[in-house]
Amino acid sequence: MWAEAVEMLGRAERLQRQFFHPVRGAAQSAWEPPVDVFETHEAFWVIVALPDVAPADVELIVDGHELVVAGLRATPRELRGAVIHRMELPYGRFERRIALQGRFELVERRLENGCLTLGLRKL
User: Fold this and answer.
1) How far apart are CA 103 and CA 52, in angstroms?
2) 3-state secondary structure of 6
3) Sign of the CA dihedral 92, 93, 99, 102?
4) Within a 10 A sphere around the Cβ of 92, how many other Cβ atoms?
5) What is the DSSP string of 43-102?
6) Which of 13, 68, 86, 118 has the fewest CB atoms within 10 Å, i.e. is most exposed?
7) Which domain of life is it from (predicted)?
8) For the segment 56-93, what is each residue's pLDDT rounded down to a tens digit?
9) pTM score, whole prediction
10) Structurally, what CATH architecture does the domain formed by 2-122 represent?
11) Where are the chain's structural domains?
């Protein structure tokens, strides 16, 4: 029973963070997509979950030692005005700031199968 309660609190916290957490420095509130960050000797690899987001709707900014991934996940036109029975994938403006050690440059950018994969070579 205790494990179920802890799991439920964890899920609630993740949902709150994704949907309701105002992003620091954003002009308007934004949701934060989940990310995975890996490091090799030569590079960082960042994978950002962005289902149904077009490459043209993603902006990448290097801000000091932070990589900023921002953009918009638009509601499909045919679903605007529809009754929502369940919504677990957020829509609207998103922004995710990812702190990385040292300096880096973007050498690979690939958006496929709902995931943005970024290769950042260490300098």
Assistant:
1) 31
2) helix
3) positive
4) 13
5) EEEEEEE-TT--GGGEEEEEETTEEEEEEEEPPPGGGTTPPPS---S--EEEEEEEE-SS
6) 86
7) Bacteria
8) 999 999 988 999 999 999 999 999 899 999 999 999 99
9) 0.77
10) Sandwich (2.60)
11) 2-122
pLDDT above 70 for 27: no
Does 25 have pLDDT greater than 60? no
- Find out whether 35 and 18 touch, Cβ atoms under 8 Å: no
Q: Is the dihedral of CA 89, 91, 21, 43 positive or negative?
A: positive
Count of residues for the chain? 123
Enter the tokens of residue 31. Answer: 């949701």
CA max distance for the chain: 50
- Find the Cα–Cα–Cα–Cα dihedral 70, 110, 117, 40, rounded to 10°: -130
In 3D space, the residue among 23, 106, 120 whose CA is nearest the CA of residue 71 turns out to be 23
